[in-house]
Amino acid sequence: MDEVSVLAPVASRPGASGLRSGTGAMVPTSPAMPLTKVSSVASIAKTTGIGELDRVLGGGVVPGSVVLLAGEPGVGKSTLLLEVVRRWAERSDTDRALYVTAEESAGQVRLRADRTGAVHERVYLAAESDLATIFGHVDQVAPTLLIIDSVQTMLAADVDGVIGGVTQVRAVTSALTTLAKTSGIAVLLVGHVTKDGAVAGPRSLEHLVDVVLHFEGDKHSTLRMVRGIKNRFGAADEVGCFELREGGIREVSDPSGLFMHHRDDSVAGTAVTVTMDGKRPLPAEVQALVATTQMPTPRRAVSGLDHARVAMILAVLEKRCNVKVADKEVYAATVGGMRTTEPAVDLALALAVTSAHRDKPLPAHTVVLGEVGLAGEIRRVTGVDRRLAEAARLGFTSAIVPDVPGETPSGMRIHRVSDMGSALRAAGLDVRRRGEPDAPG
Prior knowledge:
By secondary structure, the protein is of the alpha/beta class. It contains twelve helices and 18 strands.
């Protein structure tokens, strides 16, 4: 091929005005624009009116975006979304919300809406599973927010495959994504999860949507948490806290009361720490109970903590600190149904077990941070400054932290420790029984 013809402008080549032979290229209907001239006004997030959800979304719902909310059955996804559509409809006279359900009848959804106070004249409800019919409802209602409950129960009639299968889920999600991008309607999809907690369906489902949220909660607890997994419009490591009640779901902007048992006096076997869930510092109370037993194999019961790390902490206390618990039953748990596995909880667990073993409480209003190594050393953890600031806000006046430089909140006394021995002394737990050797360090 002649070099001049290769370098010639597209407009001067044969077929440039239409479909190019052999390449399939078309003249674009709208020309490419310089980035400086592209308006971002249409992509500004609109608040849902629920602060904890807006926090995870990155400020609110962006028009034309697709959000996937996944969670286990019965965790409260539909209850949360009914609250979302009610507050969305209350925003202005021009905002309408269309709630499409395929898992429940319209009457069932209305009963829940009555119970939770989510009834509003600009909230529209359709019990439908056919995708083409849903598009017809969208044309009639002209909503600015569309809820699909759930994406695994929708059917694209012109696509092969069973409802909930890989082909159907991909086709339904692709069609709804195209609808969102072309119309500017914000779409929220409810998704099922597998027994392992992952989003059910093809992996491409998470790639097609803009935001992926996980709605988590224990059926034995009222605590619910919305966790960001993917977010094209904000941070993907935020978490929102909610409390599920008989009358609906309520956001909890300050969850400290859920994870701690407030009391005037300290109790033996308890220690307070601050965990980091994404960027959010959350206080947590760790409790331990050490009891004598006649059983040849003492019991180890753990709730809300990592079993492996609890076993490691007990071994370190036995070997390095002469805290003899090998022949005793040990129970360790968190308060309020919190689940945490981060190493920053190690030192709080170690001091709680030691406090329970020696039946001596930690000093009042003391928070404990730090990772414990196998040699008994206290290792640094991330976000110490933010954790201490949150502890100071909650009224804690003393802290036991790793021996690394950092800022000290005003009015808080800091004990920087390098090993378990110095941590026990800082906590006032180095009082030994008769015949016990000194703790190391």
